[in-house]
Amino acid sequence: MSFFIFFFIVITVYISANVYIFRKGLLAIASYPLLKLYITIFFWFLVSAYPAGRIIEKLYLSYFSDFLIWVGSFWLAALLYFFLFCLLIDLLRLANSFVPYLPSLVFGEKFRFYLFWFSLSVIGVLLFAGYLNSIKPVIKNVEIDIPKAAGRRDSLHAVLISDIHLGTIVGNGRLERIISEIDRIGPEIIMIAGDLVDEDLQPVLRQDIGHTLKKLDAPLGVYAVTGNHEYIGGADDAVEYLEKHGIVFIRDSVLKIDGSFYLIGREDTDMFRFTGRKRQPLEELATLTCEEYPVVLLDHQPVNLQKAARVGIDLQLSGHTHHGQLWPLNYITSAIYKVSRGYGKVANMQVYVTSGVGTWGPPVRTGSRPEIINMKILFDSEIEK
């Protein structure tokens, strides 16, 4: 029920926002009937492309469904900026109704027409720049100091990635480039903080992405946890496929890595929303560790940080937020999450949240960079000999 309520709200907002900018656009080209007709047809094609593509993808996966999803995905980003642009114009005009300050020409038909083409040009450039940004991940070097001895280790060289969203939009080409960057770093361990696949597994199967995933390798292993998108598409099937291709999933369980530190992996918190099952309490998982050793928690969503700190977690690694992905949504994620991106600290627990290396929805990033975290974790210098 909660899913259907959420779905209804999303559809209502989507339709309302499109109707709003459509009406504003028609006002700008009211004197050009033929252009008005073409724009109307093209506009509603863009609006329907993404939902139609997702529906067709479920029925019959094809290049046509891929085309619709790609077009519709770009429109999702365009919709945000057209909405903000129209809202800004309305607010300026509203302010002018109280304190007149705008020249009369801004209310003219010709000005609206030029403003229409100006908005198209600016938003088109913004989307193109955001797309280029989305396909070029940066390597972010991070150093974390955990004041605990870790067996014979004084450090750990790790890579943290999250939110690749493998599927129709992010396929083998992008994954190859990500793996190439990770190989260049040469980590001892790779940790994936959820949303490895983007809901539906069928596009992953069609592209045989698992074959590429096998190239992801590190001496201590490649470990992952489920994210909310694995649960949207069916977590068990996704995990089974990914584990066949070299990814070790830690699902509400604890591993001791190299006799040096504990790695706790949690099911995503949305597990209950999609399955009706609650994930295992973190307190119970923590009892399977020894407090003398460093404890690293891999949890997709950076929530309940206080609880994790109370049970003795030394370092929590998360993703999920994309740090908004599209500006100005990064301000919203910063308001929702104590740590929306980067390093933070809660009591004695350190937290690192990556903005992810892929994209969800629009293949566009204007509010954050896609990133691969090159992490060096330092342990207590008093190493057991």
What does this structure look like?
This protein is α/β, with parallel strands linked by helices and 385 residues long. The protein has two domains: 132 residues, no CATH class; 240 residues, Purple Acid Phosphatase, chain A, domain 2, CATH 3.60.21. Helix content is 46%, strand content 16%. It contains 13 helices and twelve strands. The chain has a six-stranded mixed sheet with strand order 1-12-2-3-4-5, with helices on one face. A hairpin with a 2-residue loop joins β10 and β11. α1 crosses α3. It is elongated. The chain starts with a helix and ends in a 7-residue tail after the last strand.
Short structural description:
The protein has 385 residues and is α/β, with parallel strands linked by helices. It contains 13 helices and 12 strands.
Given the helix and strand composition, which structural class is it? alpha/beta
Question: Regarding CATH, which class of the largest domain?
Answer: Alpha Beta
Percentage of β-strand residues: 15-25%
Largest sheet: 6 strands, mixed
Residue stretches low in confidence (pLDDT < 50, at least 5 long) are none
CATH topology of the largest domain: Purple Acid Phosphatase, chain A, domain 2
**Number of E-state strands:** 12
Radius of gyration, Cα only, in angstroms?
A: 24 Å
- How far apart, in Å, are the first and last alpha carbons? 56 Å
Mean pLDDT score: 94
Query: Strands of the biggest beta sheet: in what spatial order?
Result: 1-12-2-3-4-5
Helix content: 40-55%
- Domain count: 2
What is the topology?
Layout: H1 2-28, H2 33-59, H3 63-98, H4 109-134, E1 138-145, E2 155-161, H5 172-185, E3 189-192, H6 202-206, H7 209-213, E4 222-224, H8 228-233, H9 235-243, E5 248-249, E6 253-257, E7 261-265, H10 271-275, H11 282-286, E8 295-298, H12 305-310, E9 315-318, H13 329-336, E10 342-346, E11 349-353, E12 371-378
Parallel strand pairs: 1-12, 2-3, 3-4, 4-5, 7-8, 8-9, 9-11
Antiparallel strand pairs: 2-12, 6-7, 10-11
